[in-house]
Design brief:
This protein is an alpha/beta fold. It contains 14 helices and eight strands. β5, α11 and β6 form a beta-alpha-beta unit. α9 crosses α10. It is globular.
Length: 364
């Protein structure tokens, strides 16, 4: 189905029911017991750094595993699955493939990151990761959508990067930034072009901890849309602290909405950092001011190294908390972040089934 038709179908579906997002890619990857050799494959066999924690690479080296995870989340009830591209940018991938200058007395700065942006191997890797990951997710969205008769959607996951535009890492030089806005914009434009090439339906700018980084991603999306004559819905999702601040940029959630309302996102929401119980008051604040759909995919509680997934809440507990949020009229899209397995998503899907979606306020 053409992307424009998918967008129309998506908006109709959101008006009728609460849509279900997927769960935690990283948490689910760990359940497969992969090792360093699996992550490297043949393409990265000679890499100097350990790559096991570079989950995005698995779309190239273990595509069967990533495809199986997408299949399991869709079968658990997800309407929308995210591509395995949270760190699929040249800037983020440089952490795994380029020597850290700080280890030899230097520092990361705009000059360092300009070399990263001009590195042909990193650029090729970023492109391949995004295209391959999107096509993997697209395959299962289309197969299971056809089998079930219910349209499934692919969200191109755009992570927050490993750098921040809002703050200086140097206490003695508050004006210093390791990277420039234009450099962040460039790495996001490259990622978004590749996500579109792979065939995603939505752009999901997620786990936002620095609103200026997210601004660069939103500008990148608009510029790529203008260049390609293609427009996809955008979802924005911020990570919040217990005080309701969006981490480094320290915005409250109302300010987060005001900063991005002009983008006219399909949805805006919160994810990661907290469980659904601690996230609720911040979600209520966002729902009170946002004039678009609300998404929520919290962690499975707080970190707990003794729990099977590393987080407190099991599937039935997530069911109960997410059911409460749905019945309170706070949700249009619901899913799970860290610690949420396919079993968690199946429970969340049951929790929101048949519950009317949040009604959008009338804008005069």
């Amino acid at each position: 189905m053409p992307q424009a038709d998918a967008s129309t179908d998506l908006r109709h579906a959101l008006a009728e029911r609460i849509l279900v997002l997927d769960g935690a890619m990283g948490t689910t990857i760990r359940s497969y017991g992969l090792g360093e050799a699996d992550a490297r494959g043949t393409r990265f066999a000679d890499a100097d750094k350990d790559l096991l924690n570079n989950g995005d690479l698995l779309s190239l080296t273990c595509p069967g595993v990533i495809g199986d995870i997408h299949r399991r989340f869709f079968e658990a009830g997800s309407d929308i699955c995210e591509t395995n591209t949270f760190s699929a940018t040249s800037i983020a991938q440089s952490e795994f493939f380029v020597a850290d200058p700080r280890e030899s007395g230097g520092r990361k700065d705009p000059e360092f990151y300009q070399k990263i942006l001009e590195n042909p191997l990193l650029n090729e890797l970023a492109w391949d990761l995004n295209v391959a990951s999107t096509r993997l997710c697209r395959k299962w969205a289309d197969e299971l959508g056809s089998d079930s008769g219910r349209r499934r959607y692919v969200a191109g996951a755009i992570g927050p990067l490993t750098v921040a535009l809002s703050n200086s890492p140097d206490a003695d030089d508050p004006g210093f930034r390791v990277v420039t806005f234009d450099q962040v914009l460039a790495t996001y434009k490259q990622q978004i072009r590749a996500l579109l090439e792979g065939g995603c339906d939505i752009l999901l700018i997620e786990t936002i901890f620095d609103s200026l980084n997210a601004k660069a991603a939103a500008v990148a999306a608009q510029e790529v849309f203008d260049e390609s004559a293609t427009r996809l819905p955008i979802i924005l999702s911020a990570a919040v602290g217990r005080g309701g601040e969006t981490m480094i940029s320290a915005q409250k959630v109302e300010a987060f909405w005001n900063a991005f309302a002009h983008v006219k996102p399909l949805a805006i929401g919160l994810n990661c950092s907290l469980g659904p119980d601690l996230l609720r008051p911040h979600l209520e604040e966002l729902a009170a001011c946002a004039t678009t759909c609300i998404s929520c995919y919290p962690n499975a509680g707080l970190p707990n190294p003794l729990a099977p997934t590393g987080f407190d809440l099991g599937p039935e507990q997530m069911h109960d908390f997410m059911a409460d949020l749905a019945r309170a009229g706070l949700l249009n899209l619901a899913g799970g972040c860290c610690g949420n397995t396919p079993d968690h998503i199946a429970a969340i899907a049951r929790a929101v089934a048949g519950v009317p979606p949040r009604q959008l306020p009338v804008v005069e």
